[in-house]
Amino acid sequence: MRGLRPVRVVGIGMHRYQFASETPFPAIGLAALRAALDDAGLAWPAVTSACIGTATLGMAAGRVMLRHMGSTGLEVTQVENASASGSSAFRLACLQVASGQHEVVLALGVDKHGGAQRAAERDGLPRLSPAADLPLVQFALLARAWRESHGVTLADMARVAVKNHGNAARNPFAQFRKPRTLEQVLASAPVAGDLTALQCCPRGEGAAAVIVASEDSIARFGLERRRAIRVLSSHASSDHSGAETAFGVVETVRRSGAATLAAAGIGPQDLDIVELHDAFSIEEIIYAEALGLCPPGAGPARLRDGSWEIGGGRCAVNPSGGLIGMGHPLGPTGIGQVAEIVRQLRGEAEGRQQPGARTALAHMIGLGFVAVGHVLQRENAA
């Protein structure tokens, strides 16, 4: 984040992503928050601003939840940006610290499966069909187009799910904890087009919390600087003219990723870890190529030779299990990506550690489309 104060992640916390339950959202969100405070070694009053990412809970969810921690007068901002809600909340938290407005800021994503309604269904415009705006339908069409024009096979798409379910099986915060074979993925129930059930992310509930802080506050509170991970860049954008469909989102990802990396002063070859939006298996292949992790058309080969596996090559893609394996509760998803990256860069991702990880990219898209990316890096300072 050039020209601004350095920002570091000092605390992370998660509530496991899970299928819908009777647990109230404050209990889920506060479990993640308390874990982040404990991880950072901070007391609640040290946090002077909270950015809450949620897509389904309704108005004032942040204050309803945080009042149980005690009223300290902190600033509370609620952020909704579809699947990128958490990513956008984290970006806002980083900017508040980087600009000097606050010293210690919480970014927390929380959601329960339920009452979200897409604004596109209320814009007063006629639709080609009732399903025209459903992401599942759009990405099933995208998958079929990539099969026909780029030679992506059914097995290529299924390998994304095999890898990510395998990673999620080693992640205690993941919604799915069972490894899957190629045959199981291909044989699972058809959902739309060539996509089967195990190639689509589950919805549910969960929470993720990340605390960011300035250099001054790290020193003032005596925090462990060795575990404080630097946020090198944060970038947000939306689609360009002609890119309002699932086909155009590929260009949105390409431009957003390039801008995020350029702001950090690095290239894709410098990345050790990428957490990206894989709500449907085809997305990981296309977006990884768009982000520059390999030449166009080479994604399937990277999956076949294990280059994107943990420990399998230069860059591990979705070591958390991604949306397909870890889950996609919307509000927490982008913050959960950051928490996974921080855990990896600290060397604390027990059972799924990418060896020698130093630099990572978190990238999410949201309906519309919007794109939000962050680069984080472990520094060698004591």
β-strand number: 12
Low-confidence residue ranges: none
Strand order of the largest sheet: 3-2-4-7-1-8-12-11-9-10
Terminal CA distance: 22 Å
Structural class: alpha/beta
Instruction: Determine Rg (CA atoms, Å).
Output: 19 Å
Number of helices: 12
Mean pLDDT over all positions: 93
Q: Describe the global form.
A: globular
Give your account of this protein's structure.
InterPro entries: Thiolase, Thiolase-like, Thiolase_C_2, Thiolase_N. This protein has a single domain (8-112, 203-376), classed as Peroxisomal Thiolase, Chain A, domain 1 (3-Layer(aba) Sandwich), CATH 3.40.47.10. The strands form 2 sheets. The chain has a 10-stranded mixed sheet, sandwiched between helices. A two-stranded antiparallel sheet has the order 5-6. By secondary structure, the chain is of the alpha/beta class. The protein has helices at 25-40, 61-66, 85-98, 135-150, 154-168, 182-187, 215-220, 249-264, 281-290, 299-305, 322-326, 333-346; strands at 8-18, 49-53, 75-79, 104-111, 190-192, 195-196, 205-213, 229-238, 273-275, 316-317, 359-366, 370-377. It is globular and about 60 Å long.
